[in-house]
Design brief:
mainly alpha, 23 helices, Serine Threonine Protein Phosphatase 5, Tetratricopeptide repeat, two-stranded antiparallel sheet, two-stranded antiparallel ribbon, about 425 residues, single chain
Length: about 425
């Protein structure tokens, strides 16, 4: 990605010089028509992008050609802003707005500023370009400029557009403000709009699915996955994600195995194989719990051939909502320690605490999981629970001997709870230490 980013920033920089100097070239009718075709082709490449550097290179070339043919192509500048965002993206992070958390991206330095300049140039060329305001609003959301984003999206609505990203960006803004009903309504509006934009539909489905996961409405989650798979039957990642949900959250392992196998028929990929293995391991564990020991062993051997690292299976598999039988079977039948560690040193107890799986925290503690084992970054289950404000998990961990004096970066559990606006939990923890400041 670094190579693509460097090239993209270079071209963007040249275009910014072009913007500032005001150089212009008269475009013929034929060159404008060809420019539009190049922009459309670039947009299709960006819509199909899932991290492939080659697609960004191709889109970049198309947009550079489009602007040579028509320097006033405001669509090209908007698409170039999109390309800049994609090329500069590193990973995601959570940020806080009042008491609400929402997700934005981490980007290479200068990415968002350059993208904003390009989006604003599209609007300067055509002040009635609603889609330019839609994308500017998105950039401002990524910059955590929520009020500015609201103004840009409102202007897009005034100008009028059927761009589905207007609704999606409004939904993201609603979500950041804690307006969850409004966000859900916007996502549903995209699904009902009849848009053919597959990337927008995928985003709407993804956000709605995550929203219903958070609320525990499993029937709606399943229905949305099925709808999405019907629309995109050859998307291996989607089927794999659905399989993981069926197994890890619902314990519907036979269906999960079917979906995971279907995903791997489309594309053989590492995460798909891991999802399949975990579903088979859970099938084995359920059979062990039901007393089908000998019949279950073939499932264990099948899963073992796919994912032989049983420490990883314990750490990750036993930290999910449906991890109880797996933790018990691995421990009692295969001698795997409940304190087995993942690559970063996390145990199932720490991971389940991080995920807010309070039921599994209790299960693992009852299986004598050590509440004081930290990962390589110094997080213990108690510190994590305090940081998340999970009072129920904190009480269970303390009852099992969690070290209340443990610290992360010099901060104890009470300090972490206080920093995250959980004053009652902080007071409870300070009372435990005899420090009631």
């Amino acid at each position: 990605m670094a190579k693509i980013l460097k090239a993209t920033v270079s071209i963007a920089g040249c275009l910014l010089i072009f913007i500032v100097t005001g150089i212009s070239t008269a475009a013929t009718k034929e060159s404008v028509a060809q420019s539009k075709q190049d922009v459309k082709a670039a947009g299709e490449l960006l819509n199909s992008w899932h991290g492939e550097g080659q697609l960004l290179e191709q889109a970049q070339q198309k947009l550079a050609e489009a602007l040579k043919l028509d320097p006033q192509s405001y669509f090209a500048f908007k698409e170039l802003a999109r390309l800049q965002i994609m090329a500069g993206y590193i990973n995601s992070r959570n940020v806080k707005n009042g008491t609400y958390f929402y997700t934005i991206g981490n980007y290479a330095p200068g990415t968002l500023d350059t993208a904003e300049t390009l989006a604003r140039e599209s609007i300067r060329i055509n002040p009635s370009f609603a889609e330019g305001y839609v994308y500017l609003g998105y950039i401002q959301l990524e910059q955590t400029k929520l009020d500015d984003a609201a103004k840009s999206l409102a202007q897009a609505e005034i100008l009028g557009t059927d761009d589905p990203w207007l609704q999606l960006n409004w939904a993201s803004l609603n979500n950041a403000r804690g307006e969850f009903s409004a966000a859900t309504e916007r996502w549903q509006r995209v699904l009902k709009s009849g848009t053919s934009n597959k990337k927008a539909l995928s985003s709407a489905y993804g956000f709605l699915i995550e929203s219903y996961k958070q609320s525990g409405d499993t029937s709606k989650v399943v229905a949305l996955y099925k709808e999405q798979i019907k629309l995109r039957p050859t998307n291996a990642w989607l089927r794999g994600e659905y399989a993981d949900y069926l197994s890890a959250t619902l314990g519907r392992n036979d269906e999960a195995i079917e979906q995971a196998n279907a995903a791997l028929k489309v594309m053989d990929y590492g995460m798909g194989r891991r999802i399949l293995a975990f579903a088979i391991y859970r099938k084995w564990a359920d059979m062990v719990a039901q007393g089908a020991g000998t019949g279950a062993e073939k499932y264990f051997q099948t899963a073992l051939a796919i994912e032989p690292q049983l420490d990883q299976v314990m750490a990750y598999g036993a930290s999910e909502a449906m991890g109880e039988q797996l933790a018990k079977a691995l421990s009692s039948k295969k001698g795997v320690s409940v304190d087995a560690r993942a690559e970063d040193g996390s145990t199932a107890l720490l991971i389940s605490t991080n995920r807010g799986q309070t039921k599994m925290v209790k299960v693992l503690l009852d299986l004598n999981a050590n509440p004081n084992l930290s990962d390589r970054n110094g997080w213990t289950p108690l510190l994590s629970a305090a940081d998340d404000g999970n009072a129920e998990a904190v009480r269970m961990l303390l009852a099992k001997g969690a070290d209340i004096k443990a610290k992360k970066g010099g901060a104890d559990s009470a300090t972490l709870a206080e920093r995250k606006d959980h004053p009652e939990l902080a007071a409870l923890l300070r009372k435990q230490t005899g420090n009631t400041k």
